[in-house]
C-alpha cells in the first residue's frame, strides 16, 4: 500500500510531509482533514491520532504524526539516493536534524508569533515580534551562505524542505520585506525548482494560508 497523509493545505507541517513524499519518490495519497470543522475530533481520526493534530501519516500499519518526523521516515524509507537524510555521515545527519529543530523551535515559532495572535485571538502583535523574526531570518540567511543549502550540504535535504514550508508561508503572507535576504531568496528559488510537483505539495497551500491570514487582519 502507498502512503496516506492526513491534513490540510494551510498547515506548514502537512506541506512538509507532502514535499518530503514528493522528493523521496513515495507514492502517496492526501486525505483532507478540516480542523476548523472538527474533522480531527471525529472517532475515525482520533483512532489514528489521539492528539488530534495534523499532519498524520499512515503507511501500511505504521501511523505517526508530526510533519518533520514524518519527513524523516519518508526520506529513510523511500529516498533511493539517500541524500535527503544521509546516514553515512554522523555530522551531516546531526546538522540536518539540528536545522529541522531550528525550523520548529525558532524559525516557524518566530513567524507564528507574528501571525497567530491576530488570526486566532484578534490580538495586536507587538513590534518586537517582527524584530525577532527579522533576527531569525538573518540567522537563516547566514546558514545558507556557505553551500546554498540549509544544512551545509551540496544538495537539498529534508532540512531544506522544512525551511521551504516556513519561508514560503512567510513570503506568501507578506508580513515582512524579504528582499535584503538575498541568499535566502536564491536558496528558496533553487529549492522550489528541485521539489517535484511543488505547487501541489506546497505552493498552493502557502497561498491558501496567506488568504486565510489576510481575511483575519
TrEMBL record:
Location of the GST C-terminal domain: 89-217
UniProt cross-references to InterPro entries, sorted A to Z: Glutathione-S-Trfase_C-like (IPR010987), Glutathione-S-Trfase_C_sf (IPR036282), Glutathione_S-Trfase (IPR040079), Glutathione_S-Trfase_N (IPR004045), GST_C (IPR004046), Thioredoxin-like_sf (IPR036249)
UniProt KW Transferase keyword: yes
Domain of life: Eukaryota
GO molecular function: glutathione transferase activity
Keyword field: Transferase
Entry keyword annotation includes Membrane: no
PROSITE patterns: GST_CTER, GST_NTER
Domain GST N-terminal positions: 1-82
GO biological process: glutathione metabolic process
UniProt xrefs under Pfam families: GST_C (PF00043), GST_N (PF02798)
Family as reported in the entry's similarity comment: Belongs to the GST superfamily.
Quaternary structure annotation from Swiss-Prot or TrEMBL: Homodimer.
PANTHER family listed in its UniProt record: GLUTATHIONE S TRANSFERASE D10, ISOFORM A-RELATED
Protein name stated in the entry: Glutathione S-transferase 1-1
Phylogenetic placement of the source organism: Eukaryota, Metazoa, Ecdysozoa, Arthropoda, Crustacea
Amino acid at each position: 500500500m502507498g502512503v496516506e497523509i492526513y491534513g490540510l493545505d494551510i498547515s506548514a507541517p502537512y506541506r512538509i510531509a507532502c514535499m518530503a513524499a514528493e522528493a523521496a519518490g513515495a507514492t502517496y495519497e492526501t486525505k483532507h482533514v478540516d480542523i476548523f470543522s472538527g474533522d480531527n475530533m471525529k472517532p475515525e481520526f482520533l483512532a489514528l491520532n489521539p492528539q488530534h493534530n495534523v499532519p498524520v501519516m499512515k503507511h501500511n500499519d505504521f501511523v505517526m504524526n508530526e510533519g518533520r518526523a514524518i519527513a524523516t521516515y519518508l526520506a529513510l524509507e523511500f529516498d533511493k539516493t539517500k541524500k535527503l537524510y544521509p546516514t553515512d555521515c554522523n555530522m551531516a545527519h546531526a546538522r540536518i536534524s539540528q536545522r529541522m529543530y531550528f525550523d520548529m523551535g525558532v524559525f516557524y515559532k518566530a513567524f507564528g508569533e507574528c501571525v497567530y495572535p491576530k488570526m486566532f485571538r484578534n490580538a495586536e502583535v507587538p513590534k518586537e515580534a517582527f524584530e525577532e523574526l527579522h533576527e531569525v531570518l538573518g540567522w537563516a540567511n547566514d546558514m545558507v551562505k556557505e553551500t546554498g543549502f540549509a544544512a551545509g550540504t551540496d544538495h537539498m535535504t529534508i532540512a531544506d524542505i522544512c525551511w521551504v514550508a516556513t519561508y514560503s508561508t512567510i513570503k506568501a503572507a507578506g508580513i515582512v520585506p524579504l528582499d535584503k535576504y538575498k541568499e535566502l531568496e536564491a536558496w528558496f528559488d533553487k529549492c522550489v525548482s528541485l521539489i517535484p510537483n511543488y505547487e501541489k505539495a506546497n505552493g498552493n497551500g502557502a497561498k491558501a494560508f496567506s488568504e486565510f491570514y489576510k481575511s483575519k487582519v
